[in-house]
Each structure stands twice: as C-alpha cells, then as structure tokens.
Amino acid sequence: MSNNSLSGSIPESIGSLRTLRFLVLRNNYLSGELPLSLKNCTFMESLDLGDNNLSGNIPAWIGASMPGLLHILDLSHNDLSGFIPPRVGNLSDMKVEPPKSVQHEGRLRVVTKGSERKYFTTLYLVNLLDLSSTNLSAEIPAELTSLVHLGTLNLSHNHLVGKIPEEIGNFEWLETLDLSKNKLSGSIPPSMASLIFMNHLNLSYNNLSGEIPNTNQFQTLNDPSIYEGNLALCGDPLPKKCPENGGRSPVPRGDDEDEDEHDKLWLFVSVALGFIAGFWGFFGSSC
C-alpha cells in the first residue's frame, strides 16, 4: 500500500494480523506513533514505514517482539525522535544467513548502495536497516553491530553523537554504510577496514578527526566526498595531509603567544642597540 495518499494513524487493529509477514506503507501521509498492537505481528519479516509523518520514539519492542525481521526495517524520513533502542540489535534473523527454504519472492523498492533499487525475485538477498532523516539523537548503540548479516545500514541525517562503535567491524556482510550529516566525533575505527564487502560508504559532515585508514577496503573508497565536511580528518583521498608528529595536528598559537614572541624580539633588538651605543660611546670618548 505504498505510494498512496493514506493519512491518519496506523490503526490498532493492525495487530490482529498476527501472521502478517510484509507491511509496506511507504510514502504516504500517515501520522501518530507506531501502534503498540503491532508487536503482536511476531512473524513480520519486512516492515517499511518510511516517508511518512510518524512521530514518537522507536519502540524497544521492535527488537523483542519481531525477531523474524529478516529483510527490512525502514522507518526513515519520519518525525521520530529519541535514541536507537539497543534491543534493535536483537533482530536475530539479521544475525545469520537466511536458509534457502526462506528465499521467497517479493517486489519492493529500497534505497541501498546510494541509489534506489528494485528487487523482485531476489528480495531475500536484502537485509536493510534504514533510520535516516529522522530526529534521532544520542549515540549509536554497540548492540547494533551484532547484526552481522546486515547488508545496508543508513543512519544519515540525524543528530547522533559520540564515536562510531569500535565493534563496527563485526558487520561481516555490510555493503552500504551511511552515517553522514550527524554529529559523530572521534576517529574512524580501525576495525572498519575489515568490512571487505563494503562498496558504498558515506561519513561526510560529521566531526570526525584523525587519519583515514588506508588498508584493505579503504584503498577502493577513494572518493573525497565520502569524508568531506570533517575538518579534522586527514590523509588520502583528502588533499589535507596528516602531520608527521603521530598524526596529530599542531596546536595553533594564540594571540598571547604571538605577543610574547613580539616582546622577545624587541628585547633582543634593544639589548643589541644598547651594546652598540655603549661601544661607540666608550671608544669615542677615548679618541
């Protein structure tokens, strides 16, 4: 029922569809919070509510009541707020490769690898978590990295703070990672170099610092736009080279230090002029 003009809230009666496996209401005008009754749909495999006007927090019961979310959890482009519940990392079916018996067909449009793609007979290959363009804040919970079979993680255009989790290298099958336009800080974790399947990365417009890793997969991620907007990042492919003193930028001198240097210079000049004047005064009087 995507791409319609549906409005109002999602009815509580949706929870009576206990064996519902796919719910796609993308690109409508739905508002209000996610109904609590939705947690009764424990067989849910794909939940796509992106591009609506939904509000409230991401409920923690998504991770507890919908362990079968095998393919898609997309709540992007809504008015959600709060933080990412650590329980989202409990989506157990995103932790393992789906068995062949579950490789059913479907038809869906999803945004992955930086562009919109259509999936028909290969929908079972999609494992996507998209919480982009909402108002989420706080840090990225390390528990998310337990979703080792996740293929796409998009948390861009939020207000996320703190560091990128050091355990991010646990995403063994990750192909697309978009953390752009947040307030993330610190260095790029070295473990990210182990994401050997990653072919689309966007870390732009954060507060990241330090040297960009240059091993493994990072050797192919050579587009400067991936890292732009992080003024304290350095190294290839950015034009800003890292300083040789352990990768740390030299501390800029303040105005007070410049004034001290200026005073010292005039002291030396004054001493030198005094010495010259005394020297000529002594020999002048002798003559």
Short structural summary:
By secondary structure, the chain is an alpha/beta fold. The protein is 13% helix and 22% strand. The strands form four sheets. The protein has a seven-stranded parallel sheet, with no helix packed on it. A five-stranded parallel sheet has the order 1-3-5-7-11, with no helix packed on it.
Account of the 3D structure:
By secondary structure, the chain is of the alpha/beta class. The protein has one domain (7-251): Ribonuclease Inhibitor (Leucine-rich repeat, LRR (right-handed beta-alpha superhelix)), CATH 3.80.10.10. 13% of the residues lie in helices and 22% in strands. It is built from two helices and 18 strands. Strands 2-4-6-10-12-14-16 form a seven-stranded parallel β-sheet, with no helix packed on it. A five-stranded parallel β-sheet has the order 1-3-5-7-11, with no helix packed on it. A hairpin with a 2-residue loop joins β8 (108-112) and β9. The longest helix is centred in the last third of the chain and has 32 residues, at 255-286. It is elongated, with a radius of gyration of 28 Å. The termini are far apart. The model is unreliable at 99-105, 119-125 and 245-257 (pLDDT under 50). It is a single-pass type I membrane protein. It holds the Pfam family LRR_1. It is found in: Membrane. The chain crosses the membrane at residues 265-283. This is Leucine-rich repeat-containing N-terminal plant-type domain-containing protein.
